[in-house]
Write a structure and sequence with these properties.
- With 332 residues, this protein is mainly α.
- 74% of the residues lie in helices and 1% in strands.
- The protein has a single domain, classed as ABC transporter involved in vitamin B12 uptake, BtuC (Orthogonal Bundle).
- The protein has 14 helices and two strands, in the order H-H-H-H-H-E-H-H-H-H-E-H-H-H-H-H.
- A two-stranded antiparallel ribbon has the order 1-2.
- The protein is globular and about 50 Å long.
- The N and C termini lie close together (11 Å).
- The relative contact order is 0.16.
Length: 332
C-alpha cells in the first residue's frame, strides 16, 4: 500500500514537469527576443503591453476571481505609481529604480490606510467605494499645482532605458506576478482565500482570518499594479490624471479576466494577449471600440461563462497552472 501511494505521489510531480519545462523555454525565448534584437521595436511594443496587462490581470483576478474582492478602483495605484515615478525622476532628479520603489511604497501605504475603511464593506458597497476613492484622487491631482494639475508630467530619466530593457523588465515582472499568485494559492493561506470567496461567513467560522487575508491580497495587488504602471508610463514618457486614474484601467483588467477565465491562473495570460491585439485592431474604429469590446464580453459571458481557459479546462479535463493545494504529507 505504501509503495502504491508513493507512485501516485511521483506521478503528480512528474505531471507538472513537462509544463514547467515548456514555460521555462517560452520565457527564455522571450528574453532572447527582447535582449538580442530578434524582435523588432514594434513587436516589443506589443510584448510590453501584453506583459504589463498580464500582470495587472493576474492581480485583479487574485482580488476578485480567487478572493471575491471585486474592486473597481485599482486604477488608483496606476495613477499613484505613474506620478511617483514622474515626481521622483523629474522634480527630485532621482533614479528610475528609486522612482519605481517610491511608487510601490506610496501605493502600499495608501492601500494599508484604505483597508481600515474599505474592508468594513462587502460586495457592491466595497466595489463602489474603491471606485469613488480612485475618482477622488483623480480630482485631487487635477487641481494639485505641484504635479502640474491637468497638464500632466513628463518622465525624465538619464540615461533613458532602451525599449529592449523595458521589454525585459516587463517580462520579469509578469513572470514574478504569475509565480507569486500560483505559489500563494497553493498554500494554506490560498485555501483560505478561496474559502472567503465561496462563503466568507463559513470561512470565518472555520478559523480563516478574514481581515489578514484581504489585507495580504489587497497589498500584493497594489504593489504589483504599481510596478506595472510605473514601467508603462516610463515606456510612454508622460502621465496625466485622466490617463493614470481613469477607470479604463480597471475595465481592461475586468475584460482580460472575463475573457481569459476568472479564477484560473492561466486565464489572464490568454486574456491579456487577446485584449492587446483587439485594442490595436479597434484603434482604427474609435467610435466603436468600446461597443465592440462590450459585445465580445457579453458573448463570452453567454457562451463561455467560465472564460476561454476555464471552459477548456472543464471540457478537456486538464488544468494549466493548477491552483489546487495538494498536501503530500498524507502520502508518506
Amino acid at each position: 500500500m505504501a509503495k502504491k501511494r508513493l507512485v501516485k505521489r511521483n506521478v503528480r510531480v512528474l505531471d507538472s514537469l513537462p509544463m514547467l519545462i515548456v514555460c521555462i523555454a517560452v520565457v527564455a525565448a522571450l528574453y532572447v527576443a527582447c535582449l538580442t534584437g530578434l524582435a523588432s521595436n514594434n513587436a516589443m511594443r506589443y510584448m510590453i503591453q501584453i506583459f504589463l496587462y498580464m500582470t495587472m490581470g493576474e492581480m485583479w483576478n487574485l482580488l476578485s476571481g480567487f478572493t471575491g474582492m471585486t474592486s473597481l478602483g485599482q486604477q488608483l495605484y496606476v495613477g499613484l505609481a505613474g506620478y511617483s515615478v514622474a515626481v521622483a525622476t523629474t522634480k527630485l532628479q532621482l533614479s528610475l529604480g528609486i522612482g519605481l520603489a517610491l511608487g510601490v511604497a506610496v501605493s502600499v501605504v495608501i492601500a494599508l490606510l484604505l483597508s481600515l475603511v474599505l474592508f468594513r464593506m462587502q460586495g457592491m458597497y466595497f466595489s463602489i467605494a474603491t471606485w469613488v476613492v480612485a475618482e477622488a484622487f483623480e480630482k485631487l491631482f487635477l487641481s494639485w499645482k505641484y504635479v502640474e494639475q491637468g497638464s500632466g508630467m513628463t518622465i525624465r530619466v538619464v540615461p533613458y532605458p532602451k525599449i529592449s530593457e523595458i521589454c525585459a523588465a516587463s517580462l520579469t515582472l509578469c513572470v514574478v506576478a504569475v509565480a507569486v499568485v500560483y505559489l500563494l494559492l497553493r498554500t494554506r493561506v490560498g485555501l483560505g482565500l478561496t474559502a472567503m470567496r465561496d462563503d466568507i461567513t463559513a470561512a470565518s467560522a472555520v478559523g480563516v482570518n478574514i481581515f489578514a487575508g484581504k489585507l495580504l491580497v489587497y497589498v500584493i495587488a497594489a504593489a504589483f499594479i504599481a510596478v506595472a504602471a510605473g514601467i508603462f508610463f516610463v515606456n510612454k514618457g508622460i502621465v496625466y490624471p485622466e490617463s493614470g486614474f481613469g477607470i479604463g484601467w480597471t475595465v481592461s483588467m475586468i475584460f482580460i479576466v472575463t475573457i481569459g477565465g476568472s479564477g484560473t491562473v492561466s486565464g489572464p495570460i490568454v486574456g491579456a494577449a487577446i485584449y492587446v491585439f483587439l485594442q490595436e485592431f479597434l484603434a482604427h474604429y474609435p467610435g466603436w471600440s468600446n461597443i465592440i469590446l462590450g459585445a465580445i464580453t457579453i458573448l463570452v459571458i453567454f457562451f463561455l461563462p467560465k472564460g476561454i481557459m476555464g471552459t477548456l479546462q472543464e471540457k478537456l479535463g486538464f488544468e494549466i497552472f493548477s491552483a489546487k493545494r495538494f498536501s503530500f504529507a498524507r502520502h508518506r
